[in-house]
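Researcher: Let's continue the batch. This sequence belongs to L-ascorbate oxidase, and it's 542 residues. Same format as the previous ones, please.
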Amino acid sequence: MGDSKLILCCFIACILFLGVNGENPYRYITWKVTYGDIYPLGVKQQGILINGQFPGPHIDAVTNDNLIISVYNYLNEPFLISWNGVQQRRNSWQDGVSGTNCPIRPGKNFTYVLQVKDQIGSFYYFPSLLFHKAAGGYGAIRIWSRPKIPVPFPSPAGDFTVLAGDWYKTNHYVLRRLLDSGHNLPFPDGLLINGRGWNGYTFTVDPGRTYRFRVSNVGLTTSINFRIQGHNLKLIEVEGSHTLQNTYTSFDIHLGQSCSFLVTADQIPQDYYVVASTRFTRRVLTTTAVLHYSNSKRGVSGPVPGAPTIQIAPSVMQARSIRWNLTASGPRPNPQGSYHYGLITPSRTIMLSNSAPYINGKQRYAVNGVSYVPADTPLKIADYFKIPGVFNLGSIPTWPPSGSNAYFQTSVMAANFREYVEIVFQNWEDTVQSWHIDGYSFFVVGMNGGQWTPASRSSYNLRDTVARCTTQVYPRSWTAIYMALDNVGMWNIRSENWARQYLGQQFYLRVYSPANSWRDELPIPKNALLCGRARGRHTRPF
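Model: Same format as before. Here are the structure tokens for L-ascorbate oxidase:
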């Protein structure tokens, strides 16, 4: 009788699991992560390659696909991959950051099992530990709509990925030692487009045809401006949201952000500059790729087209012009505008203020006066096994404290499943901030200069602002978002400036459901790596 009950329980569990994932395709990917010599700025460096490539191979998926990604670590350091913008619905176990996963030890492997549930759009993956991002190891993620779901533009003739961002000639471990010693990074040495320097990459187009360009800022420290000589950029998507199709001559993309443009090859057949340059920096770095018409007989010529440099106002106006396409279908057949985010009253307001304190004589960065330090055990795993002493809920305040003394803490903020919250990012520093929230897409309802107050809500866009996962905060300004906490798990909220993130400008939001149900959260993976105080424990039998 006992055996028959066990078999029945196993059968029910399998049905539940297959009900979640069984009808959707599986894509199997194997990655070998190695060091290799790269020369992106003409100087030999130690890069991190995936299957021998820098940048790494694209991930192509369709909404709701299951991705089985086996990662073999051939580095001499622990390694993790995270998935910028992939929401990991009910499954923060696969998020690939230090608060959710044990690292893959040298010579070992780990298989990520994740689903791009109810998502479309342009994202990227990156290495999340030990400042590895400064050595490469990143690549594009493209999530396509299901065939029967209409998209609000004709099928383009081609789909190009642009991974752009600042770069250092110095090896990542030297930069890491510099940060560990209490110093900030120097100014970057240059910019890259798809791992190449000046005119090092070519996009080939046919005259008269229209192409999609998916652009991500994968850099470490600076916002960029993107443009194509003589061509307009028609914005169609921002981090999984179809947008109103406004046209721009150049576009600001802040750290960690991704977007898509339609570009029509409607100029005289020749070669044109594809340009990325730094924004909000006194010294402006620029790099170019080439837009090559297939019948071109003439190379690039003329000056590289200019763009705003340190001016804030044009960037703010441009950011406010990005609007949701209310009639377009997202990953589901219902229009994006059917979710009336502006009609829901938030249950509470959280304010997050960044700062750059010195603690024990060393440069650190903090959120609400708390500079994050990683625990010896991933927070998600410690929470599952109820291991005491790893972290404390409420170890970061939900409002900036009045004092100026910052301190170290493994900071975790508590939140409840199905809360609807307002989060205000308050920036009193003189640099642009870029904030990312794992596991979620949120509504950027407002941004303005000075101090946020309740009266600031009168300027909110409560009708058609865009939903995204990374937002900028301008100097001495604020940005406000609305977010439905509909995804149970342990979620990283961080600066996308990688030095600031590394030195403490991050924390975790624990979204909790008391139900302990697979409906709300998937169980710990059977293959979960266990380390720290969880070493020697067991995951689950099936």
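Researcher: Any comment?
Model: Helices lie at 2-21, 172-180, 313-320, 379-385, 498-502.
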